[in-house]
Design goal:
5 helices, four-stranded mixed sheet, 2 domains, 30% helix, alpha+beta
Length: 167
């Protein structure tokens, strides 16, 4: 514990699981408590909610939703939302979303976004396989200003090696 004073019982539990040991998180907590090890201190910095509230004007969030038609066909709708204004941009609609189509839709979004694109610094998206490296490369090609946001449930790993295609 001296080497990693900010590690709590959940982190230690996760490391033990990764090493192949099977135990409950409560067992790790009990062992630490009996050894006189205090809980890990709260991490400094804003919470996820505080970060989102403070940065709402400089971010976009994108995802898909589906629509099932009366002909039993599923349609995928790619949309982008500006959290500060709650303005939604429908970027693309297709029955067969692929990485290439999503990348092309990102190009279209950037061409149509002349009035608000300058203030955007962050993009929130999930780990859906349709968001390929070229999609990330298109968005980071805007002067390299767009940055990933680290979140427990959301991830974005831009690929600096990948050049935008199709724009």
């Amino acid at each position: 514990m001296a080497e990693n004073p900010t590690w709590g019982h959940r982190r230690i539990h996760g490391e033990l699981i990764g090493l192949g040991y099977t135990l409950a998180a409560s067992t790790a907590w009990l062992i630490l408590r009996r050894a006189g090890v205090e809980p890990a201190p709260r991490r400094t910095g804003p919470t996820w909610k505080q970060f989102l509230t403070a940065q709402a004007k400089s971010m976009l969030a994108c995802d898909f939703f589906t629509v099932d038609t009366v002909f039993l066909e599923r349609i995928y709708v790619l949309f982008v939302i500006e959290p500060a204004s709650r303005r939604v941009h429908l970027v693309g609609v297709t029955a067969h979303p692929t990485g290439a189509r999503v990348t092309q839709r990102a190009c279209t979004l950037l061409m149509d976004a002349t009035d608000w694109i300058d203030r955007i610094k962050f993009l929130i998206r999930d780990r859906d396989g349709k968001f390929v490296a070229d999609f990330d490369a298109v968005l980071t090609s805007i002067d390299g200003r767009w940055s990933p946001i680290a979140s427990p449930n959301v991830g974005w790993a831009p690929s600096a090696e990948s050049a935008p295609t199709g724009c």
